[in-house]
Amino acid sequence: MPMFIETCTAPTNIAVIKYWGKDEARGLNTPINSSASVTLDQDDLCAMTSIAASSDFVADRLWLNGKEEDTAGNGTHAKRLRKCLAEMRGLARDRVDASGAVVCTATELASYKVHVVSRNTFPTAAGLASSAAGYACLVHTLAKLYNVEEAYEGQLSTIARQGSGSACRSLYGGFVKWVKGRKPDATDSMAVCVADQAHWPELRAVILVINAGKKETPSTEGMQTSVETSPLLAFRAESVVEPRLAAMEAAYRARDFEAFGKLTMQDSNQFHATCLDTYPPIFYLNDVSRQAIRLCHAFNEHKGRILAAYTFDAGPNAVIYCEAKDRDELLAFMLHFFPPPRSGVESYTNKPALLKAAAAMPLEPALLAKGNELRTPAAGDVKMIYCTAVGDGPRTLGADEALLDAATGFPLEQKLQKWQQTLGPAGGGGGCPVAPTVSTYAAVAVAAIGFLLVLKKSN
Amino acid sequence: MPMFIETCTAPTNIAVIKYWGKDEARGLNTPINSSASVTLDQDDLCAMTSIAASSDFVADRLWLNGKEEDTAGNGTHAKRLRKCLAEMRGLARDRVDASGAVVCTATELASYKVHVVSRNTFPTAAGLASSAAGYACLVHTLAKLYNVEEAYEGQLSTIARQGSGSACRSLYGGFVKWVKGRKPDATDSMAVCVADQAHWPELRAVILVINAGKKETPSTEGMQTSVETSPLLAFRAESVVEPRLAAMEAAYRARDFEAFGKLTMQDSNQFHATCLDTYPPIFYLNDVSRQAIRLCHAFNEHKGRILAAYTFDAGPNAVIYCEAKDRDELLAFMLHFFPPPRSGVESYTNKPALLKAAAAMPLEPALLAKGNELRTPAAGDVKMIYCTAVGDGPRTLGADEALLDAATGFPLEQKLQKWQQTLGPAGGGGGCPVAPTVSTYAAVAVAAIGFLLVLKKSN
């Protein structure tokens, strides 16, 4: 029985020019405006997927952290999953060995059922664009499995986009633009790498995972309501985004943090403004999010320039971009106002050493005074602080990393069990591959029962 | 020594189509868009002012709740106060007695210095458009004192507007529109009564006075920043407000609460959206405000129609409009989730009997269940619940109501002392004339030292 296995990881991405709203007229999960994002380092946050194809498999099956999920159902995401599979099978080419000899024809390959095992290496609860990483990883792994070569640049991203809009931006590293496109068939609505991760290696991100209160509006549902009811969103998509995106692209190319940071904060605020203009209004920011925002502005005012730039997706978590030279002081400032729990920093971050150093850093009295006007330091409002940086695109791993047994083609139980065990209450400490949790697909599969409410994905 | 004294009260107003942003090009405190408001019953909330003019007075003087304030300073509001005085003196006409005989010529009258005593009959801390009521009351009382007749309809509102923009809307009862106007001299930027209080007498308002956290951006400063930085505000002023205002006017004329309520909520949310789109962003709503918003939508969803409509000015307080037939159930619902303090309802409202009745009202289990998904009932988030209704315009009171001694022209000490004593921690229980507090002018006079930060006026 021939069996082929591929294993890959894919990064998350956090938009700096937000995507909010599908273009129902064109369909195919195209956006009402172009968007742009920074790809985050998958050493800190990533989705990991192994896919096996074999003539012996009787069905396409999916395991998420040891739990098998339905792939045949009518849930939006089960359907999207099947759509991605079908599209990729259509692009299959012969698999060849090192010598170039065909080991399996495209036709055979496409006829084989697949076993998919996937997980995120960060807490789903963190809601850090896990579906973007998940779908990007799925498409990239299938591309390896089926030996796919893009017929045109961005072809894969048009497929990933149909899984989860922002997933297409996770197919590249660095600064990635998702072009809205114009063609009726939407084949031109794709992600484009504007500058790879090597262009601005000093770019860092400090992520405050903020405790959400009551359940939030799922982004898929939320953006549809916004498109239907917000006059401000229509105006934003038509008139604000394009010039802003051009300015953002120029700022990134020039590594001009002042311009990049201001545009990032303005666009995040405008996105949340359109949510508020939606009827009924949608709220993703809470009082803690607002304190993080004010603290960022206080930090910048104190410094006399923009050194820290927050952005929020469809949830209360703050992603704060900065440059390496300013990261530690920013971290010390935020850590002072959002201190770790009594149990210490170990379970509070993916970089305990960094946080310990930051905690020991003295803060300028004037800066501290500014902060004290905005918040009284208290633990509990922030669940975790992630430290990461701009990163590269999807990676192909070796056979030894596979999550599937090369002999049976079934999930490697001991690995799955390990993931389960390492699942902490907060979803674990994050960081590859220490603390996996319910992956994207789990979220995806149970979206119908509202699991996605904690995902705060999209954008 | 001839002395003339007039005493009047003026109501507050709460905008349903919001005013946010001055037209700096035209100046004279004209708005970038027209707005509309409902005047609230001054039996519940009002400003009260006595003004005496006498040849014996040596200076224009101002007393606020027994405390004399500077009127000669360079503070924005001291200047505005003087401007209103100067303009009104310019409109003075001879004072005549019952027989029509002139008792004082316009020239003499205008040459006399004045003594002004003013107070609000509701807690300034409540931040319920107290400056609107205050300036409207000042202008109306001066009009009586100087026997002013408008040369054109709305002339007085163009003067009140220069004290505080929204003050012009407090010069009339019922549904009042502040027309932006077009003339360069801004004499056409005035308030117009669209429908008086008798048109829709069933209209009620339940006001949740919500505890503010950290200090907020004063509205005068906030709206200027918004005009300078928010692309969404410019679009709103240019393209959204006019058609929305026309629809609102039609809804009010037709007493169509469904349409009136939806537009009211949408416009409140859009105003706060433009605050969020401001750079740096301005936040007036807090998590409790948001819970009040969600509870309103839950109430309406449960009823299958819009029976309650919230609106928020430049602060966290919720003003919820409804009709008389739905008021008690709405009150019971809100009271359940925002219960009074242990001390009871007496100091929690201006209508203890109403709240006691509401507290005893059984809530539909399904409605209760909806609410429980949104908030866990707890005291403290709401300071007070006011119950009021649509009301009439400024009133002229009799000599016996005067706050000034007819013999000396100085404040009546015992009355002033009484106001001081009745000043509760929350600013007293509200309601004419039981619980006065620091009035508008106090706020106005000390704006420079940030007192206005708790006023949440404007709109």
UniProtKB/TrEMBL annotation, chains A, B:
Keyword Transferase: no
Enzyme class: lyase
Domain Mvd1 C-terminal: 205-396
Domain Diphosphomevalonate decarboxylase-like N-terminal residue range list: 10-191
One GO location term (cellular component): cytosol
GO MF entries: ATP binding; diphosphomevalonate decarboxylase activity
Keyword terms: ATP-binding, Lipid biosynthesis, Lipid metabolism, Lyase, Membrane, Nucleotide-binding, Steroid biosynthesis, Steroid metabolism, Sterol biosynthesis, Sterol metabolism, Transmembrane, Transmembrane helix
Spans through the membrane: 438-455
Pfam family, one: MVD-like_N
InterPro entries: GHMP_kinase_C_sf, Mev_decarb, Mev_diP_decarb, MVD-like_N, Mvd1_C, Ribosomal_Su5_D2-typ_SF, Ribsml_uS5_D2-typ_fold_subgr
Enzyme Commission number(s) of this protein: 4.1.1.33
GO terms of biological process kind: isopentenyl diphosphate biosynthetic process, mevalonate pathway; sterol biosynthetic process
Alphabetized NCBIfam families for the sequence: mevDPdecarb
Protein family (similarity comment): Belongs to the diphosphomevalonate decarboxylase family.
PANTHER family the UniProt entry points to: DIPHOSPHOMEVALONATE DECARBOXYLASE
Protein name per the record: diphosphomevalonate decarboxylase
Annotated source species: Diacronema lutheri (Unicellular marine alga)
Upper lineage: Eukaryota, Haptista, Haptophyta, Pavlovophyceae, Pavlovales
